Amino acid sequence: MSAEMETVIGLEVHVELSTKSKMFCGCLNEFGAEPNTHVCPVCLGMPGTLPVINKRAVEYLCKSGFALECTVAPFSKFDRKNYFYPDMPKNYQISQYDMPLTTGGRVVLPSGKAIRLNRIHLEEDTGKNVHAGGHMTTSEATLIDYNRAGVPLMEIVSEPEIGSPDEAEQYLMALRDVMLYIGVSDVKMHEGSLRCDANVSIRPVGAKELGTKTEIKNMNSFKSVVAALEHEISRQRACAASGERIVQETRGWDEVRGLTYSMRSKEQAHDYRYFPDPDLPPLSLDEATLKRWRSELPELPAQRRERFMTQYGLPQYDAGVLTQSRFDADYFEAVASASGDSKQASNWLMGDVRKSLEGHGLTLSTSKMTPAALGQLISMVKSGAITGKAAKEVCDVLVADGGDPKAIVEQRGLAQVSDESAIAAIVDKVIAAQAESVAAYKGGKAKALDYIVGQVMRESRGRANVDVVKRLLTERLG
Amino acid sequence: METGHDIRDAIARRDRSAEEVTRAALDAIGRVEPSLRAYITLLPERAMAKAREVDAKIAKGEAIGKLAGVPTAVKDLFCLKDALTTCGSKILANFKPPFSSTVVQRLDAADAVIVGKTNMDEFAMGSSCENSAFFPTHNPYDLEGVPGGSSGGSASTVGARSVPLAVGTDTGGSIREPASFCNIVGVKPTYGRVSRYGMIAFASSLDQAGPMTADVRDAADLLGAIAGFDPMDSTSVDVPVPDYGAGLRDDLKGVRIGIVRDFEESIAVDPKMAKLYKDAYEDLAKLGATFVDVTLPHAKYGLATYYLIAPAECSSNLARYDGTRYGVRKDGDADVYAMFDKTRTAGFGDEVKRRIILGTYALCSGYYDAYYVRAQKVRTLMKNDFDAAFAACDVIACPAVSCPPFELGAKSDPVAMYLMDYFTIPMSLAGIPAMSVPGGFVDGLPVGLQICAPAFEEARMLAVAHAYEQATRHADKLQPVVS
Question: Cα distance from A64 to chain B (closest Cα, Å)?
Answer without folding.
Answer: 25
